[in-house]
C-alpha cells in the first residue's frame, strides 16, 4: 500500500495515538522532506525503501492527516507534514541537549556552544569568543557565519543555541540581549574627490558607483531603505558577498560603499579609507544576541549568552567619532 492509499481516522484518533510515534518515523519524514523521494530518503538513512515507506505510513496513520503529497518536483510535505517536521526538529534538538547534559554530568566534556553570527559581526565575535574561552577553557565553541537571511533561516531550526545579528527575525519568537551600537557609514578611498566636502546629501552621490553586499544581507537592505526614503536609486557597480572584498575594491578606487563602521575600523585608522560626511549618517543600529524562546540552553550556552549580553560590547571595534549628522 502506498502512502497515498493510507486511511485516515481523523484528528481525534491522532490525539489519542500520537504518543506512540517513534524517532524513526520522525527521521523518515525529515529525510523525505530534505531529499524529495523515498528512494533518496532511504539511502540517506541507510534503510531499505520498504522500511522507510512503512515508517511514513505508520506516522500518517498516527497523525490522521496526509503528511506528504506527490508533485512534479517530488514528494512534498503538506501543512500537516510541516507541523510534524517542526516537532521532529524539536525532538532532535532535545536529544542533542540531553546527550550534552549527560556528557557534562559524566565529566566527558565541558560542553559545546553553537553560535551563529552575521558576516559583519565576524570583526568582533572571535575576540569575544577568545575572552570567554579564557574563563571557560573546557567549553567548545562552534561558530557559524552567514548573511542575515542565512542566519535568520538557521534560527527557524534548533541547531544554533543563539546568534549575533542586527534586526531580530520577525517570524520567530526570540529572547534578545542588546550587545551594542552598530553605526553604518559611507566610505571612499583616501583622496576621493568628495573626501573634504562637508554636509553632503544623498543627491550628491547619485552619480557615484556603489559597491554593495548581496541582496539578503542586512547592510544591503539598510542601504536600499536609506535611498528609497529619498526617492533615489544608487548606481550599483558590483555585488559582493564579502566585506573584505568590498573594502579592497573601494581602496582600489572602484567605487564607494555603504558599510558598517565596525568592518572598516582598521582601514579608517590606517588612513586607507575615509568617511564621507553625508547628512543623516551614520545610521546607528544595534547588535543583539538572540535565541529562540523555546530553545532550552544548557549551562555552557547560557553562560556564553549571558556573557555576550553583559560584556559583548567591550569587544566591538573602536571607530572614529562619527557624531550624529
Low-confidence stretches: 4-16
Quaternary state, please? single chain
User: What is the N-to-C order of secondary-structure elements (H for helix, E for strand)?
Assistant: HHHHEEHEHEHEEEHEHEHEEH
| Superfamily (CATH H level) name of the largest domain | Periplasmic binding protein-like II
Our estimate of the beta-strand percent is 15-25%
- CATH first level of the largest domain: Alpha Beta
Q: Under the CATH scheme, which architecture of the largest domain would be assigned?
A: 3-Layer(aba) Sandwich
Structural class: alpha/beta
Helix coverage percent of residues?
A: 25-40%
Radius of gyration from CA coordinates = 25 Å
Mean pLDDT, nearest integer? 87
Separation of termini? 70 Å
Biggest β-sheet description = 7 strands, mixed
**Number of E-type strands:** 11
Overall tally of domains: 3
Q: Report the total helices.
A: 11
* CATH domain topology of the largest domain: D-Maltodextrin-Binding Protein, domain 2
User: Which shape, going by the Cα principal axes?
Assistant: globular
Family: Belongs to the LysR transcriptional regulatory family.
Protein name: HTH-type transcriptional regulator CbbR
Domain HTH lysR-type: 21-78
InterPro entries: LysR_HTH_N, LysR_subst-bd, WH-like_DNA-bd_sf, WH_DNA-bd_sf
Please give the structural blueprint.
Blueprint: H1 11-17, H2 23-35, H3 38-45, H4 49-63, E1 68-71, E2 74-77, H5 79-106, E3 112-118, H6 125-135, E4 140-146, H7 148-155, E5 162-165, E6 174-189, E7 209-213, H8 218-229, E8 235-240, H9 243-251, E9 257-260, H10 265-269, E10 273-275, E11 283-292, H11 299-311
Parallel strand pairs: 3-4, 3-5, 7-8
Antiparallel strand pairs: 1-2, 5-11, 6-9, 6-10, 6-11
Helix pairs in contact: 2-3, 2-4, 2-5, 3-4
Amino acid at each position: 500500500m502506498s502512502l497515498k492509499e493510507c486511511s485516515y481516522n481523523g484528528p481525534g484518533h491522532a490525539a489519542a495515538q500520537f504518543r506512540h510515534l517513534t524517532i524513526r518515523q520522525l527521521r523518515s519524514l525529515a529525510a523525505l522532506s530534505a531529499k524529495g523521494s523515498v528512494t533518496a530518503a532511504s539511502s540517506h538513512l541507510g534503510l531499505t525503501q520498504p522500511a522507510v515507506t512503512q515508517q511514513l505510513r505508520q506516522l500518517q496513520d498516527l497523525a490522521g492527516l496526509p503528511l506528504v503529497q506527490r508533485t512534479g518536483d517530488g514528494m512534498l510535505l503538506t501543512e500537516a507534514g510541516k507541523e510534524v517536521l517542526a516537532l521532529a526538529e524539536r525532538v532532535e534538538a532535545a536529544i542533542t541537549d540531553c546527550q550534552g547534559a549527560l556528557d557534562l554530568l559524566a565529566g566527558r566534556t565541558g560542553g559545546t556552544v553553537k553560535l551563529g553570527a552575521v558576516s559583519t559581526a565576524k570583526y568582533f565575535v572571535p575576540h569575544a569568543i577568545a575572552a570567554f574561552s579564557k574563563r571557560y577553557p573546557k567549553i567548545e565553541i562552534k561558530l557559524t557565519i552567514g548573511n542575515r537571511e542565512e542566519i535568520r533561516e538557521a534560527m527557524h531550526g534548533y541547531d544554533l543555541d543563539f546568534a549575533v545579528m542586527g534586526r531580530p527575525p520577525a517570524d520567530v519568537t526570540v529572547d534578545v540581549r542588546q550587545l551594542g551600537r552598530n553605526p553604518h557609514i559611507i566610505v571612499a578611498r583616501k583622496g576621493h574627490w568628495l573626501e573634504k566636502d562637508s554636509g553632503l546629501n544623498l543627491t550628491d552621490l547619485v552619480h557615484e558607483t556603489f559597491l554593495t553586499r548581496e541582496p539578503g544581507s542586512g547592510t544591503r537592505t539598510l542601504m536600499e531603505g536609506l535611498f528609497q526614503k529619498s526617492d533615489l536609486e544608487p548606481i550599483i557597480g558590483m555585488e559582493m558577498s564579502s566585506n573584505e572584498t568590498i573594502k579592497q575594491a573601494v581602496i582600489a578606487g572602484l567605487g564607494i560603499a555603504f558599510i558598517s563602521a565596525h568592518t572598516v575600523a582598521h582601514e579608517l585608522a590606517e588612513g586607507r579609507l575615509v568617511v564621507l560626511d553625508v547628512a543623516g549618517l551614520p545610521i546607528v543600529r544595534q547588535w543583539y544576541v538572540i535565541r529562540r524562546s523555546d530553545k532550552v540552553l544548557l549551562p555552557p550556552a547560557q553562560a556564553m549568552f549571558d556573557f555576550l549580553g553583559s560584556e559583548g560590547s567591550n569587544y566591538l571595534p573602536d571607530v572614529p567619532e562619527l557624531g550624529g549628522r
